Amino acid sequence: MMTCSMAGERRHCTKPCRERLRYMWHVLVAFLVVFPLDVLFWRGTWDLLDYYAVVDCASEQDRGNASMAHVHGMQHENYEAACVEFTGNWMTTIFGISVCVLLNCVSPLVQSTADRCRAGTFHATSRLYSYVYAIAYLGQWRGTWNLVDAYSGDYGWRGNLVAFIVCLMLNFLFRLNQFWMSSPWEVHIDNDRDMFFSRPWLGSKPQNGMWQYCIDQLLSQVICVNLNISTWRSLWNTLDDTIYPDNLVASALLTLLSGAVILVLLALSQNTVVAYSASFKKSKWFQRSLLDGCFYVVVNVCVVSMWRGLWNLIAEYFFPDLFVGGLVCHGLGAVCLLAVMSFSTVYENSVDIDGESEDGENLRPQLTPATGWSLLRKKSNQNKSDGIRMQDDQLSPATNKESTVQDLFLESDARQSV
Predict the structure, then answer these.
(1) How much is the pTM?
(2) What range does the domain containing 274 cover?
């Protein structure tokens, strides 16, 4: 009896240890695998857009200086004038907004179709969908960022700090601090069948009217995403102007390492914050939203610091040439992210609102890649079962009926509500 009791106690004691080790494994995957690949893809795509989006009147020297001007926090006169005069940045911005809004508007239909397709078809269409969305999303980011640089002028660190404070106030007002979060704190898995679902800012649903739903998606892309871009830009430029502005490498290493250390500490101490957020009752949604927003700000400052540090190091040492470096970084980042099934991490197609989760679980790091990898076998078996059931349904005359587009929209919305 004593032996059995000791064995049971040993199993009971090792289970929490295994959970902690599994959680640390998820953190390492997000920080050391997905995050560098995400930055690599963004940097390569951004440089390629800089190379091809600059109009013909800009010289090759201007093209080459475009990327390094962004890295060093400077603006090249001829490049800026060419882009503003011939709307190079406007083209990428309008292209990105248009494509993203279009894909978001048809997302309920795509989601309903994805639920019915086979596993192989889902993998192919989801990867293609993610790649097109990512290119458009980065086009909007690149165009809006450069347009703000071109039209706002350079007022030094004080101007950037004021702009960052204004952006923070708007994020708190609109409860959008969670929305400007990125890897390594938030990572997505490509095998998630709900990856097409897009939640607009005001929460409109297709069943309330497609015009209302599409307008909500347009407002989400124009207001929320552009506010996200402005927040990142102002904080990024503030770090450029305040942390070793004359030493790019030292500044990049300092922001990268400090951001990583603070994020790891926040990830390890998340239970306290989650429990405190969950202690607020439903009637105290304002206090919970304020607490969540403050926590997201700390996390996002660390995330932007890490992005800035790694981005500058890659631009300085890893193929600094605009075209060759952009092509290599874009291709390597895309292939590796697809290989680790985390390509959907590079963009955000749903607007998350602060304080919506009453249990505080939204404050935890969204480290789904390692979790997703551990469940791939279960999902694969489930997909096979779904395929068999779908074949049986196709053989049944009673279910061989065509669904209208409105039915597909309603079914997707009901599925997400459940």
Answers:
(1) 0.81
(2) 32-187+205-357
Question: Which pLDDT tens digit goes with each residue over 112-160?
Answer: 888 788 888 888 888 999 999 999 999 999 999 988 988 887 788 999 9
Q: How far apart are the first and last CA of the chain?
A: 47
Angle between helices 107-116 and 88-105 (to 10 degrees): 50
- In a domain, residue 369? The reply is no
Q: What is the DSSP letter of 174?
A: H
Under DSSP, the state recorded for 367 is: E
User: Cβ contacts of residue 72 below 8 Å, gap of 6+?
Assistant: 240, 248
Question: In sequence order, which residues have a C-beta less than 8 Å from that of residue 197 and are 6 or more positions away?
Answer: 107, 108, 111, 350, 412, 416
Q: Which residues contact 105 (CB under 8 A, 6 or more apart)?
A: 210, 213, 214, 217
Number of domains in the chain: 1
pLDDT at 71: 47
User: Is the Cβ–Cβ distance between 367 and 26 less than 8 Å?
Assistant: yes
Instruction: Express each pLDDT in 181-199 by its tens digit.
Output: 899 999 988 887 788 889 9
Can you name the residues that pair with 367 across neighbouring β-strands?
187
Residue 192 tokens, joined: 């998630």
- Eight-class DSSP state of 344: G
- The answer as to whether 368 is a domain residue is no
Alpha-carbon distance of 194 to 192, in angstroms, equals 5
Q: Do residues 77 and 120 lie in contact, with contact meaning Cβ atoms separated by under 8 Å?
A: no
Paired tokens of 172: 């708190």
d(CA 163, CA 373): 40
119 in a structural domain: yes
Determine contact, residues 346/307, Cβ cutoff 8 Å. Answer: no
